[in-house]
């Protein structure tokens, strides 16, 4: 149960503050009750030195899987921050239960990602991922801790790559919008750029965001698929 509980505490969506602690406890108990007959549970004393090591190891497995999936949310927060800065919304912040104070666009992307996650059955994939983890790393089995840490650290670079993949098309277009505004300002110095430029940038950015929602959805879905694949593959051969 410790592996499942650790994963639920740190996993995307479930770890949000809006999901109360009693709900997480009930969910962990239900998942343990469902998975218990499907796996082999060794007979060990949890208070013995060997049992304590196994308990810590189980907690590490659950947290490692959850952190691997949390990379997607990190990429979305980074993409939202970059888009907000390019659109002139960098000062527009909102309180997010999972990440603290984040830009409005980051919160929008996280909500959008949640809908995509549920639409392709991410909750079912999460259950099967927990079940597969007991096949790759049975309870009490040893594994190469250094190899797992290196794989997880290598995957965290996807925070930057994923954020760039999501934000880059709109950012490049907004760069062209800024260049056009600069040309207009040089051509008509009497024009108040603060009265015209900022609203134009925000409207152009929101229009581009709406136009690119389909492409953004495909990239977010790709990130989720890669995250689930990586969360499974980090335990292969360790």
From TrEMBL:
Keywords: Bacterial flagellum, Cell membrane, Cell projection, Cilium, Flagellum, Membrane, Transmembrane, Transmembrane helix. It comes from the Bacteria. It is a multi-pass membrane protein. GO terms for biological process: bacterial-type flagellum assembly; protein targeting. One of its GO terms (cellular component) is bacterial-type flagellum basal body. Belongs to the FliR/MopE/SpaR family. Its main location: membrane. InterPro entries: FliR, T3SS_IM_R. It is found in: Cell membrane; Bacterial flagellum basal body. Pfam families: Bac_export_1. It comes from Aequoribacter fuscus. Role in flagellar biosynthesis. The chain crosses the membrane at residues 21-39, 59-79, 100-120, 126-147, 159-184, 190-211. This is Flagellar biosynthetic protein FliR.
């Amino acid at each position: 149960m410790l592996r499942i509980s650790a994963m639920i505490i740190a996993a995307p969506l479930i770890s949000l503050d809006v999901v109360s602690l009693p709900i997480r406890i009930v969910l962990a108990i239900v998942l343990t009750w469902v998975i218990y007959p499907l796996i082999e549970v060794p007979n060990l004393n949890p208070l013995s030195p060997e049992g304590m090591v196994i308990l810590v190891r189980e907690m590490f497995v659950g947290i490692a899987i959850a952190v691997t999936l949390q990379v997607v949310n990190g990429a979305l927060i980074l993409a939202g921050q970059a888009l907000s800065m390019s659109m002139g919304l960098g000062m527009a912040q909102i309180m997010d239960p999972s990440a603290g104070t984040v830009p409005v666009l980051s919160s929008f992307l996280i909500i959008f990602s949640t809908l995509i996650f549920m639409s392709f059955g991410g909750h079912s994939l999460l259950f099967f991922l927990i079940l597969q983890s007991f096949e790759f790393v049975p309870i009490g089995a040893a594994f190469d801790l250094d190899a797992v840490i290196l794989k997880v650290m290598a995957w965290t670079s996807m925070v930057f790559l994923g954020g760039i993949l999501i934000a880059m098309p709109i950012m490049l277009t907004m760069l062209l919008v800024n260049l056009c505004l600069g040309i207009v300002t040089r051509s008509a110095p009497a024009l108040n750029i603060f009265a015209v430029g900022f609203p134009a940038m925000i409207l152009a950015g929101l229009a581009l965001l709406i136009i690119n929602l389909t492409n953004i959805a495909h990239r977010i879905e790709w990130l989720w698929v890669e995250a689930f694949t990586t969360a499974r593959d980090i335990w292969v051969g360790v």
